[in-house]
Amino acid sequence: MSRVHVPVLAEKTVTIGDQPVHFVVGGTGLAIVLLHGWGGQIASFGPIPGILAEKFRVVAVDLPGFGESPVPSRPWDARDFGDCVAGLLRRLGLGPVTLIGHSHGGRTAIALAAQYPELVRKLVLVDSAGIVPRRGPSYYGRVYLIKAARRLFSLPGLRAGKDSVMRQVYRMVGSADYNAATNPILRATLVKVVNDDLRPLLPRITMPTLLIWGTQDRDTPLSDGRLMERLIPDAGLVELVGAGHFSYLDQLDTFCRIVTHFVEN
Description:
eight-stranded mixed sheet; 39% helix; globular
């Protein structure tokens, strides 16, 4: 999908409740809102906001804790993120919109669409989080090791070395996302959202829903997309063969064509 002119997107920040939220906005027409994944930011979408802004009104958001939106004052779950984005849509006078969420942004989009259906015209979930996977002995072994080390080094005489030891333990057995989230509130938020199974919300999503998934996604596997397709009443799944977790970048032109067709029709 060749492009000659890419509209300039204006940067803005507003406060929703007590939470500053940074976003970019541009274009005219039907409204599209882009929500990035965990550890990402607006720039994670690459050229997509500009491409879509040629035909639509586009808002791309730095979710709280990422990009230029500061970490919340307390640990959040998916519903808190959904509430915040809903507040942003109301502040901007947008809605109903087409909501596009990747990974953690998809988790946020699920919570928003289920709780505020009046704000969402159509929903696009891209390699979305929200399904808690089955966990084997190795996962629970890592959790036990972290908890045991934390308890041990909270004892008198060992507390002085607790921070150093726990950093080493996290490096050895913690996930990449957990280790990257050095802020304690952001770490606690990560723990909350990855353990929050949103399957009960999926049947409550009433608007047309498009699922886009990379067949080689190793972070949120294709089986999650197929499960969401079964549980969301009006959903269809597009599999991007050979694409990974960032399927929208792996097959950029195809992604933009599919989304444009879905939004317009």
